[in-house]
Amino acid sequence: MSLSPDAPPSPGTLRLAAVGDLHVGETAQHPYRELFARISQEAEVLALCGDLTNFGKTAEAEILAEDLQACRIPVVGVLGNHDYECGQPQEVARILHQAGVKLLDGEAYEIEGIGFAGGKGFIGGYGRNMLSAFGEPAIKAFVQAAVDENLKLETSLRMLKTARTVVVLHYSPIAETLEGEPPEIFPFLGSARMGETIDRFDGVRCVLHGHAHSGVYEGRTPGGVPVYNVARPVLKRRFDAEFALFDI
Ligand SMILES: [Fe+2]
Ligand SMILES: [Fe+2]
User: Fold this and answer.
1) Does residue 121 register a pLDDT over 60?
2) Which bound ligand lies closest to the C-alpha atom of 81?
3) How does DSSP assign 7-76, residue by residue?
4) pTM for the complete prediction?
5) Helix axes 58-68, 89-98, angle to 10 degrees
6) Which of 49, 93, 143, 183 has a Cα at 20 to 30 A from 173?
7) If you ran DSSP here, which 8-state letter would residue 124 be given?
8) Rounded Cα distance, 104 and 44, in Å
9) Which residues of 29-54 are buried (b: 16+ CB within 10 A; e: fewer)?
């Protein structure tokens, strides 16, 4: 659950800040410089949950990279669908990587003894009604994209031998944190495949995602792992906060 910045740190834990959906625009002037400086004082690691830029433009990524210079703690992150819009996610990733962001896309990182796994994830729906690979080649390709993204998540989780792990995603692994979004678009906001994968691994302390701007903050995987939607508008509505804080 999210902590207030003045909550005393629990001994033996790592204080993690998280936020998604920064949506940096190309005309923004240092939109997050002060925020990153503040986060650096209040947390030991920052997790960014995708949609870091509005359209995945080089100029947008460069504005974010410049503001990230104010961040003096390790940053892990994933890209979101908006970071793909211009068709050059690898360029956005390169700029953010150069700015020091450890991007998760099938990789895993260990920071201060805590494992970080994850990736962008993908859509496809939940439960009995999850889209399956049947019929036209386009449907099969769509489902394959969801399976491939989920395999990256699985690979990253398998790499870790840490007792405590945090999963960082853009799309939601559960439907619960989507409440407030139109039910018609739930299948386009995430996929239960990811939740099922997460539940097969021990030691996952929490899952962080973004994307569902009108969703709710808190939910759980079917196996009971806490899931937090840290999309910026959600944090603003629920806590009037710019980021969430956790002791992991
Ligand atoms: Fe977003
Ligand atoms: Fe998104």
Assistant:
1) yes
2) 2
3) SPPPTT--EEEEEB---B-TT-SSTTHHHHHHHHHH-SEEEEES--BSS--HHHHHHHHHHHTT--S-EE
4) 0.97
5) 20
6) 93
7) -
8) 18
9) eeebbebbebbbebbbbbbbbbbbbb
Distance (Å) of CA 154 to CA 108, 184, 189, 198: 10, 28, 19, 8
Q: What is the pLDDT at residue 219?
A: 98
Ligand 2 center–CA 164 separation, angstroms: 27
What average pLDDT does the segment 65-90 reach? 98
| Ligand 1 is an ion; residues with CB less than 5 A from it | 21, 51
Distance 82 CA to ligand 2 centre (A): 6
232 Cα–ligand 1 center, Å: 8
User: What is the tens place of the pLDDT at every residue in 131-143?
Assistant: 999 999 999 999 9
CB-based contact 194:173 (threshold 8 Å): yes
What are the φ and ψ backbone dihedral angles of 16, each rounded to 5 degrees? -115, 130
